[in-house]
Amino acid sequence: MKVILIGFGIIGKGVINVIRKKREYLKNKYGMDLKVVAICDRSGAAIDDNGLDLELALKVKEETGKISKYPEKGTSMPIVEVVKSIEADAIIEATPTNIESGEPAKTYIIEGFKSGKHVITANKGPLALYFNELLSYAKKHNRIFRYEASVGGAMPIINLAKETLAGNEIIKIKGILNGTTNYILTKMEREKLDFDTVLKEAQELGIAETNPHQDISGLDTAAKIVILANSIMNMEVTIKDVNIEGITKITPEALSMANKGGYTIKLIGEVSENKLEVGPKLIPLDDPLNVKGSLNVAMLNTDLAKEVIVVGRGAGDVETSSAILSDIINIYLKNK
Amino acid sequence: MIILDLELKDTPGELIKALTPISKMGINIHSVIHLREKKVDGRIPVRLVVGDLEDKILNEMINKLEKLDVTITKVNTSIRKRDIDLVVIGHVVDTDIRDTIDRLNKYGLVIDLDLSMPDPFKESSARMKIIVDSEKLNDLYNELDKLSKEKNLLFIKSF
């Protein structure tokens, strides 16, 4: 199987590391010879139809910051041209999320389908804004579209709902879908520290981004809720339809108050037929949704299996790459 | 059989207080189950199973229990009352807490209030428990939304 990787940042490098680590495993278990025939970043691309030397690609990126500096095979060819002209079975789209326009990821995904490639993405932006449009391209070109890594990182939720729980009607999904806010609220609760202090510490530790707006305002969770609503519950909604409240007003006193009543406070995203909401909620201390640190958790209410709960790591390069790898394997097995 | 879910204060004598009028009405009590593991905020859910009753007698029994301040949350599968726990963040006192409670009491009953004011010039926090008839739940939520906008208060609700 030949793949093109678009985006060589934290997630892209994580994907390459996971492929390196699992190469023999994939051969032995699935008979799959996985070749990365192109890696793209802002500088251009490295292209080799026989498969790139992944260790060398990582070294070049580490030393120069530019994949186009890859010896002999490096090029300044624009990403869209790589997607259109290089022969491959699938593209792995791992560029940074743009929640306002979904670009440039949206273009790469569409061009991928148009050029006959399956698409795997970890990118919330285009999914939250243009899910049905992207899906229509996949259908039109008879290609597979997989996006497990876009919600909950390593925590399996989309494929769990669509495949493992096939036959069940999903009535409601609620959960913690943002690890940064969970880390902040957990730390505030345990150490009685105020929001700004914990946010600063989380930024220093690399848990929160330098610009944490999308996380703490609830926008990131809202994007994920929209993806779940559209992909699992067949709704046609966008991020504008979500009622959003973030966690910036939460105080340590409020957390203590909640604790006295047998609750904690968590930023919960919820989707059901009548509700599309993100906001802080009181969660009973003994509830399965009360997971600590930067963990993610989701509860799916179904008609047959009733409540199903998944917990997992919602971020991290290797963790997110594990979801991407599961999508690669799924596509390979479906086309074997 | 009729299944009633009650909520009792976790103090001695509360269960006897609830069972006495039922017994005096000659109603057959099949079982009483304390759901201690589900205790929230000092109140213990109790499940009561009684023999079949005519609607008139059932309503009479419910009225008697409610007069004794016993909360009946569910009769068979029909949810009658809901407990809503809230944490409120903002200038809870300065925005006239009496008015906030009065407006919530139009749709439910605020039965518990706890206030934390770490600094008189900073935002405070309050914890409330409200008992509300199921059919008035949406009205209560609408009032919370109005109060939130008018008084810049954040109401964090339980599910």
UniProtKB/TrEMBL annotation, chain A:
Pathway it belongs to? Answer: Amino-acid biosynthesis; L-methionine biosynthesis via de novo pathway; L-homoserine from L-aspartate: step 3/3; Amino-acid biosynthesis; L-threonine biosynthesis; L-threonine from L-aspartate: step 3/5
Give the matching Pfam families. Answer: Homoserine_dh, NAD_binding_3
Which InterPro entries does its entry note?
Asp/hSer_DH_NAD-bd, HDH_cat, HDH_CS, HDH_short, NAD(P)-bd_dom_sf
**GO annotation terms (biological process):** methionine biosynthetic process; threonine biosynthetic process
Locate the Aspartate/homoserine dehydrogenase NAD-binding domain: which residues?
Answer: 7-148
Q: Is this entry keyworded Ion transport?
A: no
One GO MF term: homoserine dehydrogenase activity
Residues binding L-homoserine are 209
Highest taxon listed in the record's lineage: Archaea
Annotated Homoserine dehydrogenase catalytic domain residues: 156-329
Residue positions binding NADP(+): 7-12
| Keywords assigned by UniProt, alphabetized | Amino-acid biosynthesis, Methionine biosynthesis, NADP, Oxidoreductase, Threonine biosynthesis
EC number of the protein: 1.1.1.3
Listed binding positions for NADPH are 124
Q: Report the active site residues.
A: 224 (proton donor)
State the similarity comment. Belongs to the homoserine dehydrogenase family.
UniProt-recorded name of the protein: Homoserine dehydrogenase
Where is the organism placed in the taxonomic lineage, from the top? Answer: Archaea, Methanobacteriati, Methanobacteriota, Methanomada group, Methanococci
UniProtKB/TrEMBL annotation, chain B:
Q: Which InterPro entries match?
A: ACT-like_dom_sf, ACT_dom
> In terms of domain of life, where is this protein from?
Archaea
Q: What is this protein called?
A: ACT domain-containing protein
Q: Where is the ACT domain?
A: 3-80
Source taxonomy lineage? Archaea, Methanobacteriati, Methanobacteriota, Methanomada group, Methanococci
